[in-house]
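User: What would this chain look like folded?
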Amino acid sequence: MTAAPHLLVVGAGPGISAATARRLGGDGYAVGLIGRRQGALAELGNDLRRSVQRVEWAGADAGDPRSLGVAVTALVEQLGPVDVLLYNVSVGREAAVADLSPEDLLADLAAGAVGLQTVVRAVLPGMRERGSGTVLVTGGGAADRPIPSMASLGVQKAALRALAEVQARALAPEGIHVATVTVRGLVGDDRQIPPDRVAALYAELVAETAGPRDEWRTVVELR
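Assistant: Here's the prediction, encoded as structure tokens.
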């Protein structure tokens, strides 16, 4: 029996992550979840099991390369190599420029941007072996219009976009499609952008990976 394709979600939560897990889970994907809060992670995982055939999870801090690597390894052992990675991490620290310490900025960048590189390196061997894979990255409008009361968020999202773009250029020749969606608006069932709309776009980008590489999108706007 052929193993189900594996969607790995880093930064798992009830919004974009859950919607994407349900969308791709409905297409037959097994879902691996990584999040920082064990209780919330287990609650989400058990909820997803009602509609997704296979869901597993592992706790890790996206800003800690060691714990993140251990979590990825554990989920790959359970679910197989990663076919689709969703990096959906943001640190919404309430701190203006005058109050943001260098230590806090470094910590926010570690989770909000550098963790993407950690997890891409962890899943890359399996994607390279198959010659295919999709990396999805949740960006935000703060990359262009920073929010003064959340000074580190714009820095995270600007760095994240640049990292996704350089990964896309480097990995496309190996059949690995990296795309980042700049979400310009508040996400929620009663907000400007419903999570299901983001999930639908991510499903489009996954399907795009099977098509011609010159038609792959890298930086996508969602308003």
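Strands lie at 6-10, 30-35, 55-59, 84-87, 133-140, 176-183, 219-222. If you want, I can go into more detail on any region.
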